[in-house]
Amino acid sequence: MCTRTLLFAIIIVFLGASCKEVSKEKPLSQHIRESTDKGIKDWGNFPIGGAINVRKALKDRKLDSITVQNFNSITSTNDMKMYAIVKEDSIPDFTRVDSLVSYTKKNGMRLFGRALVWHYGLPKWISKTTEEKGAAWADTFLRKYIDTVVPRYKDDVVAWDVVNEAFDTKTGAYRKTFWYETFGKEYIEKAFRYAHAADPDAKLFYNDFGQEKYPEKLDSIIAMVYDFKNRGVPIRGIGLQMHLEMDTPEQAIADALKKSAATGLLVHISELDIIFNKHNDENDGGEQAITELTEEMKLAQAEKFKQVALLYRKHVPKAQRFGITFWDFNDRDTWIKPFFDLKEWPTNYDENLDPKPAYYGFIEGLVTKIEN
Ligand code: XIL
Description:
This protein is of the alpha/beta class. 47% of the residues lie in helices and 14% in strands. Bound molecules: (3S,4R)-3-hydroxy-2-oxopiperidin-4-yl beta-D-xylopyranoside (XIL).
């Protein structure tokens, strides 16, 4: 073979090899779908959470394996709420929380505690005793409650939602709850100070819903956060529940994230799900306009989940990304259906606990390159 022919042959072989390389490159979506050994948590660079009912996860093998595969952070849906810990009297029952702690330990997951103070589902005996004994009793109770719960889990729980939903549904006013009626807005600050004294290392969050939907509410929350920072109230993070609707504008999500991040605190998307119908935010059920889930809707929802991940990465600086948590994360168990009395499909897994396009869409949002 002459030198020229040899050179030609080498070039052909080289081109052939590099063409093979190119054809090996799969589209991103296919690559994600084929990486069945990975979960959502393996694609991003911040924690990915799931809200669970630990008894369900322990009983249901498929649910358990989805939980372990996808999440490195866990929130309890209800078991750490005050009404679950002190149901009938002031003697706390920690059985479920303890079992949650061993579940997260066994699986090497971060445990997020919530919520120390929330108006919804306040045990009746607390308001009744306050009526009889007065605000001083309620103050002692609150301090004692926080002093009992927080230190008990100080090695297990890295962060707490200290107060949940202290603002009105749609406006910037404080919600007139039992706690507000008893102490005025000072109860929020009290709870943060008690929690900090109980575990100075715990990262303390304020959590609420609808910041992306109601701008006045967002601004009031942000104003409270700056006020806390200025006066040394020990707040470390803001939780945005983000129970979204398909037509929640991306600009609105971006604004809520940007304003939260501008405070310098950690930012947690704490309860993500996305519905096709409408919530009635005053809890009187939802507005059922859509009753069938089509393939087209599934793809649109995937795109929306992708956008949420992209927006979070774009607007929350790395050091402030506490993570994104999915509430219930499957269409079988989602709280949305009973709570709003809706036929709905708001999560990443379907009723049979199989991944929906939304599952892959969100992951695309974690890995797609963004311009900052
Ligand atoms: C929900 C639970 O998922 C339901 O099981 C329960 O009946 C009501 O609370 N915002 C919150 C969460 O802060 O605690 C709520 O969780 C969902 C809305």
